Amino acid sequence: DSGVTQTPKHLITATGQRVTLRCSPRSGDLSVYWYQQSLDQGLQFLIQYYNGEERAKGNILERFSAQQFPDLHSELNLSSLELGDSALYFCASSVAAGAYYNEQFFGPGTRLTVL
Amino acid sequence: SQQGEEDPQALSIQEGENATMNCSYKTSINNLQWYRQNSGRGLVHLILIRSNEREKHSGRLRVTLDTSKKSSSLLITASRAADTASYFCASSYSGAGSYQLTFGKGTKLSVIP
Q: I need a labelling partner for B79 at 20 to 30 A (CA). Which of A96, A112, A114, B53 fits?
């Protein structure tokens, strides 16, 4: 158990819908990262927050957005869903925004299926 | 684009044998991390090696890093059936100010009892 929690574990929805994925980082970790894992694209970085502020963006679609709340939990919002958005979405957390030896610990993931 | 590339893509060995997986990356890094993923499940952090380190051990795991060749290897000694999983290297590169991880496509390891 990494200490990072994600809900829900599974999500099945229809095209065009909007969903929210939730992540709670390890106690004491200020930085939250979101990653997407799909069969064709592999594991890709989406976005990072540090202590409530956006720190970096990766291959995140404009239909997707995220935020980190004062209690440091984070939510990833996916809207106007398409079939190709079906994937495993991981949240990871680390102590700091960037450090020479900054280990990232991953949650169990949310499996999103868009029908 | 994916910065890390693992080699081989798949590896099948007998229990008790050693397994070696290689990883290459393209740009300067701060550290390189290895993860294990059991089928469709979460990523388990195995080991982190910093760019100024050449070798690191953790139990049956040995990781090496060659920054001149931009490559790393993960050795699992005395493999067990429970080691069956996909293994990913992930590089954390400097310059972006974020230290997000860039993953390779992974090596699928099968350990036959």
A: B53
Q: Are B85 and B38 in contact (CB under 8 A)?
A: yes
Q: Which two tokens stand for residue B81?
A: 């059936």
Separation CA B52–CA B58 (nearest Å): 18
Whether residue A25 is preceded by a cis peptide bond, meaning omega within 30 degrees of 0, is no
Q: Model confidence over B74-83: pLDDT tens digits?
A: 999 999 999 9
Summarised one tens digit per residue, pLDDT across range B43-94 is 999 999 999 999 999 999 999 999 999 999 999 999 999 999 999 999 987 6
State the residue for tokens 């590896």. B11
| Those residues with Cβ within 8 angstroms of residue B8's Cβ, 6 or more apart along the chain or in another chain | B21, B22, B107
| Pairwise CB contact (< 8 Å): B103 & A103 | no
A60 in reach of chain B (CB within 8 A): no
